[in-house]
Amino acid sequence: MSAFNGKVTAGPATVMARSKHNLVSCPECTSGDVAVRQPRGVYDFLMELCGSYRFRCRNCQYKFRGNPVRFKDLFYAKCPGCLNQELSDARPDLVQTGTMMALRAALGANKHHCEHCGAVFASFRPVRGRSARSSTMVTRDARFNSEPPEIQPMTLPQPVLQAWGWVLDPPRLVVRLRIRIKPRRKTGDAPGLAERSSPGSSPSLLD
Q: Which domain of life is it from (predicted)?
């Protein structure tokens, strides 16, 4: 038993009429025109993780809570509008632009299209009926069975090739050094002998 909107509703067997689209019927007027209400807080978010959702009947405006999703289907992606799990990949022309959609897609979420209500959304959970392992095996088999791609020769710009040629065969640089050789001074010569014997010098005291 569950209570919501001041009324007591029955369990999931009476609340929802399970179909191939996982639609929910209103327990008050038995109408199938039921909308899923968005969670308003942490409690509603945790209840949705456990499979309990908030609904509102568009016919009689009756609000109730139910758990139409089976436990084994909680780990698969489902439409946020009608909880349908028969999803297909969203085409580029159907993708809606939005902040949350763009944020989830940037973080790696897959974009899906609901076949029942036409909603387009992004989810990190896998789609029911699709196996990531089988798709990986098929991709791997197709990769190994396909012909190897033709290897194209790598081409580099001319400045890079010229610089690489200089590294392998450096140019020879000829450096001419001008060396001035000074004559060595004899040991017996006095330091001032050359100056005294030079022409134009002052007369020596010996003379």
A: Bacteria
The full length of the chain comes to: 207
Report yes or no: 22 and 84 within 8 Å, Cβ to Cβ: yes
Which range is least confidently modeled, 21-35, 41-55, 157-171? 157-171
Question: Is the overall model pTM greater than 0.70, yes or no?
Answer: no
Among 74, 95, 121, identify where a domain stops: 74
Residue 55's domain comprises: 1-74
DSSP state of 159: H
- Cα–Cα distance for residue pair 59/32, rounded to 1 Å: 9
For 53, phi and psi rounded to 5 degrees?
-120, 160
Query: Which has the higher per-residue pLDDT, 123 or 151?
Result: 123
Report how far residue 98's alpha carbon sits from residue 109's, in angstroms, rounded to the nearest whole number. 14
Task: Find residue 66's DSSP bridge partners.
Answer: 53
Question: Is 41 within 8 Å of 87 (Cβ atoms)?
Answer: no
DSSP state of 160: H
Q: Which of 66, 100, 131 corresponds to the end of one domain?
A: 131
Query: What's the whole-number average pLDDT of the chain?
Result: 66
Based on the fold, state whether residues 34 and 6 are members of the same structural domain: yes
Please report whether residue 62 resides in a domain. yes
